[in-house]
Amino acid sequence: MIKNLIIREEKTEDYYNTELMAMRSFWNKYYPGASEHYLIRIVRESEDYIPEISHVAELDGKIVGAVFYTRAWIVDGDICQVRYWEFLIPARILSDLSQKPIAGSDVIFEWNHKGESRIIKVFKNLLE
């Protein structure tokens, strides 16, 4: 249970701290360095970014997690093009919140054409 955890939409003034949290969370995890923080910036600049359902997790005024959504297409040959919501960037929660990050922890990867989001439920589970 994490008390005082706030789930909310990301604000423009959060951008730097969100990117810094992502960089620290993924630094040297899968390969030397990290690029996830840069990917967040690219996603935000995309016309397919959906800020209304993208969220940050804040604890005591500090960004400790984030999820971002974008539109994606699944193409069936040359005939069918279907639009889906896609969870693109995994949530990052700082383990025990003592600067020891766990990248991609407590995340359900899911997309859904109705725009429904299970990732918020994952964050809410941390409140229980």
From TrEMBL:
Query: Which species is this record about?
Result: Pseudobutyrivibrio xylanivorans DSM 14809
Entries under Gene3D superfamilies matching the protein? 3.40.630.30
Query: What is the protein name stated in its UniProt record?
Result: Acetyltransferase (GNAT) domain-containing protein
